[in-house]
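Memo to structure team: turn this sequence into structure tokens by end of day. - J.P.
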Amino acid sequence: MCTPKAGRGLRPLQAGATLVELVVFIVVVSVAVAAVLLAMNAVTRGSPDPMMRKQALAIAEALLEEVELMPFTFCDPDDANVSTAQSATTGIGTTVCATWIEQMGPEAVQGETRYNASFPFDNVNDYNGFNMNPIVDITNNAIAGLGAYTAAVTVTVPAAGLGGIAATDGNGQANVLLITVTVTGPASVNVVLQGYRTKYAPNI
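Reply from structure team:
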């Protein structure tokens, strides 16, 4: 009768996946990945390109900042008494406008435009109704790559004012202005930004 040599025993069974189990696993994972990719593709097709939205947002932010940095005064900034006028009226003395009361929209008598070197936009009010199609710089030169974008600005007096600041003063002149910039672009991109500007005239 033979006996096994010392130190030698039966070989242990090896654990692992069979070929059939591996094939089933691959099929299941492939179906799951395909479903996720189809869902992502549908979402991507239904939403505008993130780069286009970022570009539209950058345009809106730049234009809103341009408007907000403008003076908001009783008189047009070209008026001789702009830094001393205390009301939007004309008359004798330095506490009223000498010639031009600031009106909503550009002063037509001066031919104000965003690009007029002699009489450019110089007040928040001047931008009411301003449109750009296509987007151009401050010298009215087209900006490469932005031909498909447009921008529009409206400036209004908010009915409720802002915080504790009344919308208008005792003479019915605006104390607060609401600036709305709307930028549209390709793939139905639409970005709207708003900002407020308060009057602290005669300081400009």
